[in-house]
Amino acid sequence: MTVVLDGGLATELEARGHDLSDALWSARLLADDPDAIVAAHRAFFRAGAQVATTASYQASVAGFAEAGIARQEAVRLLQLSVELAREARVRGDELIAASIGPYGATLADGSEYRGRYGLRIGELVAFHRPRAEILAAAGPDLLACETVPDVDEAEAMLLAIEGLGVPAWLSYTITGESTRAGQPLTEAFAVARGNDQIVAVGVNCCDPRDVAAAAGIARAASGKPVIAYPNSGERWNGRRWTGTSRFAPEMVHDWLAAGAGYVGGCCRVGPEDIAALAAAVSGPGTESRPG
Q1: What's the whole-model pTM score?
Q2: Tens-digit pLDDT profile for residues 133-165
Q3: Is 205 annotated as a binding residue?
């Protein structure tokens, strides 16, 4: 069976007129306009998404502190991200994935597309663990360890979520058949092999043309179900997207043939794209429901 994910939450928020140019990105609206986040999640659910990824990708206690938000309020806002996604459910059985973005996302300078921050694995664990604990306590169905640029951070994330009692997926941002830091995907996906907490591995926020090959590698290297939710294929350049979208919903058939079982979109992929993807997935001979 195939599970349809949502698309770019920030993309939909911007399409609705919200300015997300500050360092907190979409997480700023957790404090300023939570109803807008509910509406954006609901738009994807109505388009056919079965999983919502929360507005916590770029959120952290440290990041909120830099914005003048005290720890107690930061904890509340992180947990609110899960509650808002849950509130947005349309059918009632949709799944909520609490987003844990990479360390580089909190720097708001594109570092998540490079990795190799000069931090040791233990330092990355110390960064990720508090946020993971806070999000897990809010009761999501899944943790989404996403847009991971290198193997060191993947290993740190797996350690940071260990023992929290919430299943998770691990997805890298890639270029071709390498992580953004240049490591072979075979090595990258192998870190999840034998880890029972990880229910899927794969890629996100990458060129959609790179998905099929990566999905095959992910399946072989990890022994896990595969998740794939690329961006539009446009390029991120100086805090803005340039180029032309290459996200074509019919490409999903190649992803499925390569082993993907969870499919959706990331940046610059809106509800209309997810609706088309969901229609492609649920065509003759396919089955689509959360598993």
Answers
A1: 0.94
A2: 999 999 999 999 999 999 999 999 999 999 999
A3: yes
